[in-house]
Every structure is written in C-alpha cells, then in structure tokens.
Fold this sequence. Notes:
Cytochrome Bc1 Complex, Chain A, domain 1; 16 helices; alpha+beta; single chain
Amino acid sequence: MSDVMKRVKIGDGVHFSTIIDPKFKSNRISVNLLLPLEEATAADRAIVPFLLRLRYRDCPDFTRLNEKLCDLYGAAVDGDVRKYGAYQIVNLSVQALDDRYTIDQAPLVQECTQLACGMLFDPYLENGLFSQTDVQLERQNLIDTIESEFNDKREYAIGKCMSILFGDSPMAVKKYGSRERAAQITPESATQAYRDLLRRAAVEILFLGCGDPSAAQQIFADRFAEIARSPIAYDGSLPVQKAEKVRSVREEMDVAQGKLVMGFRTGEVRTPDDVNAMKMMAALYGGTPFSRLFQHVREKLSLCYYCAARYDKSSGILMVDSGVETENEPKAREEILHQLSVLQQGEFPQEELASTILTMTNALKSTVDTLSGLENWYLTQILSGYVESPLENVEKISRITKQEIQQAAAKITLDTVFFLAAKKEAQDQ
C-alpha cells in the first residue's frame, strides 16, 4: 500500500492533496471549503452543498444530471456539512471508477473533475439566484435535520452541554446553524452565502484512489485562477484551557430517562504524541464496551443505561454522557469522576490498556478500507496541522504506555455538568 499524502498549493488559499492506493478501483474527489463558524451565517452556508448537488448549468434538471452520472459509469455525487473546532466545512464530492477499468479507457478523472467544477463554479441559477423551488425543498430538509437533534434527547443533551461550555465562542455554533436561522433562508441569502464561500473560504481538495490526479489538479487550478479571492488564513490552534470552576445546569423535560453530560477541558495537548495519549486515555476511560465507565458505572454499580466518553481534539474537549434515572444522577456523577481519578493515579491493570490498544488499532486499520474513510482521516490530519497515515498512527498508539495514559488523564479538568431530568421523576422527589 502506498497511501502517503502529497499536498501542493494550486491557488490563492487552495491546496490539492493526493492519497494514492492501488488496491482501489475508483477515485474520490473531495472539495472542502472552510470558514469560521458564525451564528448569523451558519444555516445559509449549510444549505449550499445540498443546493449545488441538485443540478448545475450544464445539467439543469435531475434527469439530465442522472443521465450524466450514468454516462460516467455510475458516478456518485454528494454534498455535506462538517464541523472542525471553530470552523464550518462545506463539502462536495464525486466518486467514480478509474479510467483504466472502463471499457474504452474513458477519461473519467477529467470528466468527473469537470462535473465537480460545474457544480461548484457554475450552479443552476434563475436570474442570478438559486431556484426558489430548490431553496424551499432544501430549507425544509435542513430544518428537519436540525429538529431531529432535538428529538434525539441524547444528542440534545450533549449539544446543550457544549453550548454552555463554549459560551460565546464560535465552537458553540452548530454545523447546520439554528432552526430559527434556517427558517429565514431565502434564494438571496443562500446565493450570498455561496458567493462568500467561493471568495473567502480556505479550500482543501483531496484526490483519493488509484488513478492519475494530474488532470484533476490542473483543472481545479485553472478554474480557481478565474475567480477573485480573498481567502481567510486557517488557524487550527487551540488556547491552552483549564477549567476554573464547575458549572452545573439542570433542565426538566418529558423524557423516559435522564441524560447526564459532563464536559471536561483537556488542557495542553500540543504534539501528535499528546493527542495519541489523550485519544487512548479517552478510549480506556469510556470509549469501548470494556472501558472503565462501562464496566464500573454501568455494569458493576448499575447506575446508568449507558456511559461513554468522547475526545474531540479539534476543540480540546472530552465529553462523558450517560442515561440515568434522576435519583441515580449524584452517584453516577461521583463514580464517573472516581474512574477518572483511577486513571490519573495509574490504578488500572496493564491488561485493560492492552485490550484498548488492540481495539483502537483494529479500528484504525479498517480506516484504509474505504475512500470515504481515508478522506475523513486525511482531512482531519490536514486541519490538525500534522499528517501521518492510519497505519503509521497504529504503530504509534501501539507503544502508548501506562505512564502516558496517567499523564494525559492528569490534564483533564471538569468544566460543565448538564443534566436533563425526567419531569415525572423530578416531581416525585
């Protein structure tokens, strides 16, 4: 396997990265536009990729676009919105068979790149604006997506805890924006957001697969050279943060079970080795079916229905969330903190660390099995400021020591506790 990434600048604020692996028979072209998250613009930007993927100038309706994709041996297009720290990422992707596997050696890399550029640079517009019909459709889809989070009480509680923890920081803004802002999207506001993305966004283009990326690189370079840009300078650095005090917020709602979410700050995590240690500490703490939170808080003490920890290196946050009965919330909180202290003091068996390393390395090895998995991995690597392959990362985390886990845990400080209590249980107390 040859999956070493090569990254070059091809325009003002535009970088083109290639990850070549001959085991694949397809190629994936991923265009990512990054701008700082803003409450006022997040929803308008979030609708843009879903509008762009519907149709474009040369394929002005779904039938024409579908015929085009069929001609390209069943190529697939997609749009998405991601969040990395304080940044919103608008994504467009095209995936198709490589040229050498077509019947007539068709230049699919070139044609798929032109398709991606058509969607990105030549969208379907009516009188210079996105279609009213398209905006109405995708606006409702966006509202439904935002509302689905509210209906999922676990995700709602996690989002609420993060909102409290981040306060007025851009990191508090959700990747799709708010429902209120989404409901106000118009063809004018969506078109303005699109033009702003083209002009100001930092752009990361990834070419992943087995093919020759040279045609794609040149086409993108030529197209970006045609537009006036004033791109932002991406800054993925994080301030070293340590919680000064613990904020506790309680909310009551008609839910079947309470949701306890605890937000921790991870302090100084500067180097790749620091990140690896923190990632493994989080997995040992609450990231596997045999983690300490699962074994002790859930299984041994029966204090919750689930209990898991997630580390987000892009924001310097560790989140622990659990489903608990209201009367068990104080004990569950206490035991979650106790298990963290166990890691901080190094009072866990070496066998637990070995099992965690095995689980994490197996998961990393599966990353290289799909082009979308590689895309997510390398985009995150680029944004974090250092790049290594998943298999290189496997070698590094395999050498994580008990002392490194202890040192990572020692940096953790509790910042915010959010408890979503069940109304009936609260009234019975």
